[in-house]
Design brief:
By secondary structure, this protein is of the alpha+beta class. It has seven helices and nine strands; from the N terminus they run H-E-E-H-E-E-E-E-E-H-H-H-H-H-E-E. It has helices at residues 4-17, 45-49, 126-133, 144-149, 157-162, 172-182, 195-214, and strands spanning 23-28, 36-37, 54-60, 63-68, 71-84, 95-99, 104-119, 252-256, 259-263. Strands 1, 2, 3, 4, 5, 6 and 7 form a seven-stranded mixed sheet that branches. A two-stranded antiparallel ribbon has the order 8-9. A hairpin with a 2-residue loop joins strand 8 (252-256) and strand 9. Helix 1 (4-17) packs parallel to helix 7 (195-214) and helix 6 (172-182) crosses helix 7 (195-214).
């Protein structure tokens, strides 16, 4: 899934790989996917992009936004982006943008994902608007004071970080490692954390995101060229067979809030205040 670290990395890579390229053609949904989301079923995509020159790319929290003159292409959630030179098979995709030099940007959808092409300036979803309205965790303006404006003492730390678009672009994949590094259990309530622990959580969130970006994303996600990121994810299903790297204890998986949480009971005890 595209989370904030991957969105930053992908946007940077698009700026390098697509610089000065002109769109020759656009194909939509060669392999139909029930949970691939388009604007007007993608019927206007070729017309909007044909002949347009790539200008630049940015991320808006977990959204990857590409601008072609007065048009924009926006990807989010479970979209897998790949760039390749001419001569590569691109038969199965949900969106394919071919350039005049025959290189291609191909997007496929894993579980679900948005692939939006519109005129520049249009915000295609309310979730993207929430991202525009927020300060993301990579920004210098993301201060501890801002972080605490989102806090509600009734929430668990997992709910605080992962729900209600409080911190757009941050999902379960990033949160697991942040909580582990802070030594905090996902089910711990905010009301049971003093300021020291909340400051530590904030610091591990900011430093964790920056480390993931510096290393090219997480190693269970791939970049624009199909290469895994250099940041080794610590708390995930793939690590269940391994001992905790802090204490050599057993990593535990539990169902919580409609998903899974991973934690070390020794390093992340519930009674940690």
């Amino acid at each position: 899934m595209i989370e904030l670290p991957e969105a930053i990395v992908l946007a940077r890579q698009c700026n390098e790989a697509l610089r000065g390229k002109t769109v020759e053609s656009v194909m939509v949904n060669s392999e139909p996917h029930k949970f691939a989301w388009y604007v007007n079923e993608g019927k206007d995509y070729h017309q909007l992009l044909y002949g347009k020159v790539f200008s630049y790319s940015v991320n808006i929290a977990g959204y990857v936004c590409l601008y072609f003159d007065e048009a924009q292409v926006i990807f989010h959630d479970g979209v897998i982006l790949r760039y390749s030179d001419a001569g590569v098979d691109h038969s199965n995709h949900q969106l394919l943008i071919r350039f005049t030099d025959q290189s291609c940007l191909m997007a496929t959808v894993a579980m679900y994902g948005g692939l939006y092409v519109t005129k520049k300036g249009i915000v295609p979803t309310v979730y993207m608007q929430a991202s525009l309205d927020a300060i993301d965790c990579f920004s210098p303006q993301f201060t501890f004071e801002y972080f605490m404006t989102k806090a509600n003492e009734k929430l668990s730390l997992k709910a605080f970080l992962a729900t209600e678009q409080r911190f757009p672009g941050i999902g379960n994949g990033v949160i697991q490692d942040v909580l582990f590094k802070a030594g905090l259990h996902p089910k711990t309530k905010i009301k049971d954390c003093d300021e020291t622990k909340l400051r530590l959580l904030y610091e591990k969130l900011v430093s964790g995101i920056r480390e993931m970006v510096a290393l090219g994303g997480r190693n269970n996600e791939k970049d624009l060229f199909g290469l895994p990121g250099g940041y080794e994810v610590l708390m995930t299903s793939a690590q269940l067979k391994n001992p905790c790297r802090n204490c050599s204890g057993t990593i535990v998986k539990e169902n919580y809030m409609g998903g899974s949480i991973y934690f070390c009971p020794q390093c992340q005890p519930m009674k940690n205040v």
